[in-house]
What we know:
The chain has 13 helices and eleven strands. The chain is an alpha/beta fold. It folds into two domains: 22-164 and 316-337, Rossmann fold; 171-312, Rossmann fold.
Amino acid sequence: xxxxxxxxxxxxxxxxxxxxxxxxxxxxxxxxxxxxxxxxxxxxxxxxxxxxxxxxxxxxxxxxxxxxxxxxxxxxxxxxxxxxxxxxxxxxxxxxxxxxxxxxxxxxxxxxxxxxxxxxxxxxxxxxxxxxxxxxxxxxxxxxxxxxxxxxxxxxxxxxxxxxxxxxxxxxxxxxxxxxxxxxxxxxxxxxxxxxxxxxxxxxxxxxxxxxxxxxxxxxxxxxxxxxxxxxxxxxxxxxxxxxxxxxxxxxxxxxxxxxxxxxxxxxxxxxxxxxxxxxxxxxxxxxxxxxxxxxxxxxxxxxxxxxxxxxxxxxxxxxxxxxxxxxxxxxxxxxxxxxxxxxxxxxxxx
Length: 351
């Protein structure tokens, strides 16, 4: 069976290989799950799929996985597809279409796992493309449930799961990172736009010229920073900054757990006229563009880092959200009756 690439940086040597023993997969007294990833070793979609796989093991659930081009035989209760938004944006290939059709034929339910803002550019077209491909719905991994009626009106199911910390992350000891170990005061990453270029100039001129900026032009094909490269940079960085393309203050959860993993501070930059809904998580990590320079100049890294990590631990874990979703669909027993966490005995423990 195909396996997930290593996830983590120099200090996080956690490998999750996909697949469990045949005897477990063939048991029909349990629901069967299929995790389908794009097949790119160094992609955020693969990392996100790996997080879900870890939590399936923690919940005591067996699963199979494959690349989209290598859908296995068998029968599954649920298939989770990762990376469809990019595949559809870039123009689906015939191989991808065949893979999606194969997944539909062997699965009772097929959900596209996404972390996109419903008000983002092209999202409506994405919904209609999913419907046309026969996808049953969306599993929305994020920090706040979105306007599900927009998705349901497109004829798709909608499920929200809070993208919290994994059990492995929660078990990790608290880091006490010293600023001296982080020579990069800020890292600004995103597609090049005039606003981002202007912000980077202000950071260089008014905060520190020792920062890191990666703003590739959308008109030029360039190698993206994968999760491993990003983690190596963030482990040397104090603040990880990014801004969205749209006015809606959507929180990209993968940037938050990437920051947690690397021990740095996330800062989501929003437009000056942005309005944050009541109950929005991590409000202290959301900064208006006009306030960014001042915020970084008076940064207390140790204090803010401790507050961020404490708040993150206080939110539901990823396993909590997945467990509720699976239990609501009848695929997982009540918490008191759930099996013990599995070791992936075919390939080593997921920890």
